[in-house]
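Sequence and structure are kept together here, with a separate record for every protein. A complete record is shown below as an example:
=====
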Amino acid sequence: MAIGTKELAPAELDTFEDQRLVEELRKAKEELFNLRFQSATGQLESHGRIRAVKRDIARLYTVIRERELGIRATPAPVEAPAKKASKAKAKKAEEADAPKEEAE
């Protein structure tokens, strides 16, 4: 995260998948812990950074909650291009899972 939270702008958070939001939240909480520790030991140089990180955390929680409530749309999952062998395996597995009708 850059100072000033340029990376975590609300418009950019809309493009993140849920898993990435949780990961960003974890990193922000870890950074806040480290900043508080530095503050307690007198090693903190940028006190404004604590405020910026707290705002990042609040912004992330807001986006996650809005998605839960259906206020904010979740981005469509991007599928990686599948190989031909993978498609064939998926089709075989699909056929094996489908119930077979017995001829009487």
About this structure: The chain has a mean pLDDT of 80.
